[in-house]
Structures are given as C-alpha cells and as structure tokens.
Amino acid sequence: MSTTAEQLSATTLLRFATAGSVDDGKSTLVGRLLHDSKSVLTDQLEAVEHASRSRGQEAPDLALLTDGLRAEREQGITIDVAYRYFATARRRFILADTPGHVQYTRNMVTGASTAELAVVLVDARNGVVEQTRRHAAVAALLRVPHVVLAVNKMDLVDYAEPVFAAIAEEFTAYAASLGVPEITAIPISALAGDNVVEPSAHMDWYGGPTVLEHLETVPVSHDLTACHARFPVQYVIRPQTAEHPDYRGYAGQIAAGAFRVGEAVTVLPSGRTSTIAAIDALGESVDIAWAPQSVTLRLADDIDISRGDLIAPSDDAPAVTQDVEATVCHVADQPLGVGQRVLIKHTTRTVKAIVKDIPSRLALDDLSQHPAPGRLVANDIGRVVLRTAEPLALDAYADSRRTGSFLLIDPADGTTLTAGMAGASFATAAAAGDDASDDAEWDF
Known about the structure:
Blueprint: H1 3-10, E1 12-20, H2 26-36, H3 42-54, H4 70-75, E2 82-87, E3 91-97, H5 105-112, E4 117-123, H6 130-141, E5 146-152, H7 161-177, E6 182-187, H8 211-217, E7 231-232, E8 235-237, E9 249-253, E10 258-260, E11 264-268, E12 272-281, E13 284-286, E14 288-290, E15 294-299, E16 310-313, E17 320-330, E18 336-337, E19 341-346, E20 349-363, E21 368-371, E22 375-376, E23 381-393, E24 405-409, E25 416-422, H9 426-431, H10 436-439
Parallel strand pairs: 1-3, 1-4, 4-5, 5-6
Antiparallel strand pairs: 2-3, 7-16, 8-9, 9-15, 10-14, 11-12, 11-16, 12-13, 12-15, 17-23, 17-25, 18-22, 19-20, 19-24, 20-21, 20-23, 24-25
C-alpha cells in the first residue's frame, strides 16, 4: 500500500452539506474549497476556465466546479444536489452542495439527511434572512449535530467585525433555540479565498479556524456501535447443496450497534426469539460484527424470517406499532392528502398504509404550526399520522437516524412522495421543555 493510501485509510470520513439563500455563494465556497485544497484535476480546472471565458469572465468561476447541469450554468444557480468527494491528509470528505431556492428545500433535506455537519452561508450585506432560518430549522429537524455559520462576502462590507458579530449573534440565538448542539461562526470571502482554506490577511480581529481547518478537526463523535443494535434482513440464504444442506442465513447490513455470537435476539415484527449461532463476514466466521458491516447471521432455531424482518437484541428491541406519528418533508410535486393510500418503506420492509391525519404544517420561517392544513404540497414540512397494514419496528428518529426514518411511496407508480422522521419533531421537544443536554446526546 502506498503512503498516500495508508494516510487516507487512517483518516476519518466527514459527510457535510452546504445550505443558504440564493446567491449567498455556496457553490463558490465549495469550488474554493476544492481549488485551494488542491482537489481539482487539471482538466476540470481547464474546463471551468474555458466556460468562464465563454461567459465573458476574466477569472475562473469556481462555482462551475459543482454546478454541472446546463440549466444551472445558464441561470447561475444551483438546482440539484451535487455531491463531491475530496480528501486532505487529515480527513476524507463527502460534500453535498444543496440549492438555496425555497422551491428546492426538499433537495436540502436530501443532502442534509446523512450529513454530520451543515455549513449555512449568509451574505454579510443581507444578514439572516428567511431562507437562512429555514435551513437552520431543517438542519435541526434532521438532527445534524454540527452547524457552521459562514458569513460570506465580507470583502463587500470592508471586513467589518461589527457586521459579522451581529449576524453571528442573531443566528446563534436562533439555532440554539432549535436545539442545535454546536454552532461555529466563521467570517469568509469565498470569492477572494479569505478564511476558506488560508487565513485572511484582512481580518486580524478573527482568531478562529478557517472553514477547512474546522472541517478537518470537528469531532465526528457518532459511534454506530454504541447505538441500539438493529439488523434489517435483506435476503435469506438457503443454498440447499450437498456441501451446505441445512445452511440458513440471514444477510443484510447492520444498521446500528453490534451483534455477538451467543446473544439472545428477537425477530420483529413476529416477536419470536432465538440466539445467534454464528456470524459470517466475507466468507469467514467471526464472533462479533458491527455497523455498518454487511454480514450473514445464523440463528440457533429455525424461525420463519424473510426480507423486511428486523433482528434486534432481546433486551433492547424496539416496540412494534401500526400507528405512526412523524414529521415529514413532502418531496413530490403531487400533494399528500388525508385518506391517501401509500406504501411506507422502512429499512428493508415495505408495507401498505393510509394517511389518517395531517395535524399541522410547520412554517419554518417563524416555526409556527398551521393546524389541519388538509394536505402537504412540495417542500412542505408537517406532522402526519399513519396507519399501517402490518406492524413496523420503528425507533424514534431522535434515537436513530437510520431506523427512525422512512419513505412514503405512491403505490401506483413508485414515486417517492415524502421523507419521514418518526417521533417528535424539534418543535414538539422544545415545547415540552427539553433542555440542551438532551439534544447534545443525539444518537447516530
């Protein structure tokens, strides 16, 4: 293995997303990160320089490194989520550059759903606007544990410290009220490169990290092995060959936690119990396996198990229910209404369900609840009550982003309608008086 490969194998992985209002400079920031961290290939940079010249720009438009769709380049906006992969000597990164327009809020939900950190950009000239609050609320709703406020375009306000301080104070107070555990504010100029990768020579009053320094050092503290152990069954393996006449294994990816040989487990939703007789990983038997490994579990008893069942430790099994209350983000163009029949996909299990009620729709600009909206349209976030045809083993999303999330699907054509998060939303938790220490223990 080469030295570079050895270094990368030893580094941690950080998934993060960018968000912010229109023209706040998200794509430029991403382009600057990639360019200044030497993560752009020569031919990519040449293509950006050529495209920039053809548009009459003297300097390369670094936003074009992420805005790859023709419509994005023509309009100068971000429409879809762009994923970029890069690495430094200290850490590997998967970056989701999300759109800023209100009508693309659902895309921000997609990008932030797997993120451990969100970078929310603010134009220093405009301060905290409605879309800034909306994106902060989405980050809190999705339990993103780290939020960075990047106050951009500081060069256009003469690098004034009071401007930055006022914006940072307003945003921090708002995000903290939503229960975001950690907020870091950084003054930057993505266009000029100030405090993105290199420290700024124009803001000697700022003594904190650059954006890249923070991304490299922020603790990725989530430990899937410490979560509630969950194993959704994807496939039942029955070779029935002369070599393996009685082999019966249950294959899948461990969603969270760890499983050990000899451990007592419960199969849900049936509730039948057994013990783990063996664990097969990469063709070998092991005594222990943990998330996110893909393994095959073999049980001591022959139990009727099929795709969609969930195996969990008997002393830490989730409750099964047919009544689901959740916060959802509606992502389809067609509305979601009360009485609508849908499919609910949770881990590897898909069952029929009906929308029994839509108690409220959340206005993310002021966090007010609009009662009984009757339906949710594209980009709406609201509360729903579902009744499923078969029991589901759902965790609360606050306990596990992996086994507390689900999708609602149109049974007619398979269209994804809604992304759901089981249990209480951040607004409900705040109203109940939960303190910040509870939020600091978000489990991933």
